[in-house]
Design a protein that fits this description.
The chain is 33% helix and 18% strand. The chain is α+β, with helices and mostly antiparallel strands and 326 residues long. The protein has a single domain (64-298), classed as 3-Layer(aba) Sandwich (Beta-lactamase), CATH 3.40.710.10. The strands form three sheets. It has a five-stranded antiparallel sheet, with helices on both faces. Strands 3-4 form a two-stranded antiparallel ribbon. Helix 3 (133-143) runs antiparallel to helix 4 (146-157). The model is unreliable at 1-7, 9-28 and 313-326 (pLDDT under 50).
């Protein structure tokens, strides 16, 4: 009986397994596949269309600018010329003017330790070194050395503070009444400011001094520093970019951005331009635009185009029998 019951159970169990195997497999719900995400292509930002120029307006990058007839002082063009701006190293035009007016340019200036504590743009001279005022003026205006500015200021007035007071007073005497100076080099100070108009007035007067005029037109200057010959190159690239350019001074700080005071002469006409708060390339293009505009207004003919370089000459034939001799 027990054996019969076991057999019956096995038969039932086998039947269940057979039924389970015969049942259709559960179908999985197909997983819907999302299309692969495609990266959105970023469209280039369109270049903003510059605002149309008003009649007579020049296309300048600078936020402030002015253009003078250097001989008469007449204003030939202006753009926000009375906005207060930082002059950066264009300050050194006035620094140099005060030193030139004091004279005795072959007098030696001994470098003091306080003269060396300034960066950047320095001659990196050492306390105890000696240079003439004349040498230091070249270093001031070509290399734009801030330590030189400190040495000249101290030599001239006894201290930077006293010299800055002289700068402000002299500027006012020249008609630059909206300016205030606190140092001889132009490094940022909220109380050290001028305008394009004032800077043009100062530069116009400085350009009447023969030595100042000579220095700012100089491309390179060499001077001895102990046993070392030091070569200084003028920072003003407009001297080689614009025919007739004869100076004067570049300037740059983050606060001031790019500043350039320029002077050029053509066919007897002379003009001074000032651009303030321009950019690295704009200071050159702005100044060229202004000075060309001046010459057009003053009736100076355009210079002839530069002649193409002459072809290299054929080397001279060596005399017979000279081959191999050096």
């Amino acid at each position: 009986m027990a054996k019969s019951s076991l057999t019956s159970a096995l038969l039932i169990f086998s039947a269940v397994l057979l039924l389970a195997g015969a049942a259709p497999a559960a179908t999985k719900k197909p997983v819907s596949q999302k299309p692969a995400a495609t990266k959105s292509v970023k469209k280039p930002t369109p270049t903003p269309t510059p605002a149309p120029l008003a009649p007579g307006e020049l296309p300048l990058v600078a936020k402030s600018a002015i253009l003078l007839n250097a001989k008469t002082g007449d204003v030939l063009y202006e753009k926000a010329p009375d906005d207060m701006r930082f002059p950066a190293s264009a300050t050194k035009i006035l620094t140099a003017l005060l030193v030139l007016e004091a004279g005795d340019l072959d007098r030696k200036v001994t470098v003091q330790i306080e003269d060396t504590k300034v960066e950047p743009s320095a001659l990196d001279f050492k306390p105890g070194e000696e240079y003439t005022r004349r040498q230091l003026l070249f270093a001031l205006l070509l290399k734009s050395a801030n330590d030189v500015a400190l040495a000249l200021a101290r030599d001239n007035a006894g201290s930077v503070k006293e010299f800055a007071g002289k700068m402000t007073r002299r500027a006012e005497e020249l008609g630059a009444k909206a300016s205030h100076f606190t140092n001889p080099h132009g490094l940022p100070d909220p109380r050290h400011f001028t305008t394009a108009r004032d800077l043009a007035l100062i530069a116009r007067f400085a350009m009447q001094h023969p030595l100042f005029r000579e220095i700012v037109a100089t491309q390179e200057f060499k001077m001895m520093r102990g046993d070392e010959l030091v070569l200084m190159k003028n920072h003003n690239k407009l001297l080689g970019m614009l025919p007739g350019c004869i100076g004067v001074k570049t300037g740059y700080t983050i606060a001031a951005q790019h500043v350039l005071v320029s002077c050029a002469i053509r066919a007897g006409c002379e003009a001074i331009s000032v651009v303030m708060y321009s950019d690295k390339l704009g200071k050159w293009s702005d100044s060229k635009t202004l000075l060309e505009h001046a010459f057009e207004k003053l009736g100076a003919p355009a210079p002839p185009p530069l002649a193409p370089p002459a072809p290299d000459a054929e080397p001279a034939a060596e005399p017979a029998g000279a081959a191999g001799k050096k």
